[in-house]
Design a protein that fits this description.
Layout lengths: L1 H23 L22 E6 L7 E9 L5 E10 L18 H4 L1 E12 L6 E22 L9 E22 L5 E15 L7 E13 L1
Antiparallel strand pairs: 1-2, 1-8, 2-3, 3-4, 4-5, 5-6, 6-7, 7-8
Amino acid sequence: SKKTICSFILLVCVLYMQGQVINKGKSAPGTGSETKELPPFEFKKQSMISLSMSDMVLTNITVKYEYFTKDGKVGYQIPFSFNAGGLPDTNNYRTGNAGRFLSARNRVFQTGLNLNYYVSGQGKVSPFVGLSFAAGWFYYWKYNYTYSGPPAYNNSFTNEKLIANNYSFAFHGGFLFNPWETLTFGIKAGVGLRRYGTIYQEYTIPFGLVDFSAGFKF
């Protein structure tokens, strides 16, 4: 009958709703188990190896090692960076071209020291501020024009591949994301001053930095 069918549907709805409540809280009586929440993030790993994703755009491999103090508030990070064989910028170097990312595109090797202060220690999301120091070497090209007088084909161009140094200092800030105890993702941005050392007259110029990285704590 219609009454029986309505009663059956109502019973099914009640049992379904009761099952939903049990799934959100304790398990059904007699099973002896309860639904457990995910454990909170615990800071136990004091070392981290990370790889810069943004440096790969310029065909550089940058690996960073960071050591955390026991309270997780301070991190001492040392980066090691070298070129992975990307196409170099072989244009004639001039001081006005210093903003062409030459030190990154033509990188030979670069290292430094990053000091990170984690405002609230290590958690699922860890904001930080800090200082960055970097020093390295890169290739650049000097082109010479030799004038031998007419006819024009007697004149010639020669080029010379040289090695320059670069060093910089910057303030930075960012976030370290810890979705699990070991896997991490980081993002940081900063501003600072940089200087190149070449045969030309150089100036200390402002620059900006942006970095995305993935890491592993151990």
